[in-house]
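Hi C.,

You asked whether I'd gotten around to modeling the 174-residue construct. I have! Everything is below, sequence then structure, no commentary in between.
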Amino acid sequence: MNHEDVKESLQTLIDSFKPDIIFSSGISSHIHGEGEYINIQYAYELIKDLKFKSLLIFGGLQSTANPELILTKMPRVNYLISGESEIILKEIAKYYPNKNKIEKLKGINFLKENKLIKNSRQKIIDNMDDISPYDYSLFDNQVFIRPYNGKLLRAVDYELSRGCIVHAVIVLRL
């Protein structure tokens, strides 16, 4: 267990690395649990008061489902990526710091003069081999510690899909 203050550690990392882009997504180790759906709030709460000059970009479920709400409630976020983030994030890095080119990319949402700009959707990735495998060496070891049968094991959650189809039923009483 790491007992360091997470915000202090992150600020130290930002100060030393001076990133151009900070990105967070809805990727979660809580398969179909609360982590997938509130991951962006956790990330924003962690970073919102830190000092940085980086572009702050979020992707994932919430960014796709309700970009206007996210951008309104999280004013330090510069861009949201709707849909799949891998290719678009690569394009953002390619065009950085040219905001004019970034703001024309498909799948990008942002506020301009308090108005939501929601670009058209990007093409869905149809060949998963176009995405490189995750580099798990980037993560702190404690991310992989999971309780299992009374023991703590080093493990990773793995899904064989890009997500699931979600069906919602809303019942209203009139």
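If it helps when you're writing up: Strands lie at 21-24, 55-59, 79-81, 108-112, 115-118, 145-148, 151-154.

Thanks,
B.
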